[in-house]
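Marked as duplicate of an earlier ticket. Keeping the data here for the record.
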Amino acid sequence: MKNDAIWLDANVTQIDDVAEGVRRIAFAAPQALPAFDPGSHIAIRAALAGGHAIRTYSCLPDAAPGEVAVAVKLHPNSRGGSRYMFSLKPGDTVRITTPENRFDLSWRAADYLLLAGGIGVTPIYGMALALAARGAALRMEYGGQSLGAMPFTAPLQAALGDRLALHPQDQGSMIDLDRAIAALSPQGELYICGPLPMLEAAKAAWARAGRPTSRFRYEVFGDTGRFTEAPFTVRVAGYDQAVTVAPDQSLLDALDDAGIPMIHDCRRGECGLCVVDVLDHDAPIDHRDVFLSDGEKQEGTRLCACVSRFSGGEAVIDTGYRP
């Protein structure tokens, strides 16, 4: 596994419920954690029923100096990460990494459009405050199930004023992507984090507007798919064993637990290192990554093992490795 961050033990210092089903958790290490830029994240080693798994969370901009804080939404179909995070108490020791950034904010744009969906607000929150502090031209569109379920609305409203638009779905409010993009200057940039359907819709709107892909920056969380998580079984070419993947487990974690070597890095469906070949399957693939193209997903011959999964049944895959 490639990882440039440093693993260390940290203690939970504070826990706050910041929205319905959303918890802010702060950590401190024996030595002060390094400063980080907007868009940074940490990895956390979550203790699950069947072992351990790595989960990544965006760093919030409101942590005390030398500490790091994240916000976690308790998902009903959690793969175990959010349940573990919600079990933490002040004083607990957790294995985390130092912050690293793969969703960095450039300072080159004439203006900025920030789009956030649900808990995807966590990296966008820091970007909004940083841009506002620098006097940058920006607008933020923030959607969620309801106002009560949308964290950090108060500090965002204080920093952005009328440059922030809130879109609670229970009030029938939706982000007009075409309108929001049209208001951006030709030299503007878009930053988005949210569920996969929102990202796909924004990509389509950006393409319709004829905007350059280099000015469309995104991060996605891989726990939103088109099917409810169900168990499935895979057989791996070259290995005389069947691997069962539980509803709250990723294919990557199941293969690791079974001793089948895998290369991986981001665990968010972005880098493509964990892609496997799909040789046969009897249930639809639930693609939750942003690495494979739409055409590749329709072909159904490759899958990002860290976030994507089969909707059930049995499948045969090839990792490219042999015992």
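See parent ticket for discussion. The chain has a mean pLDDT of 92.
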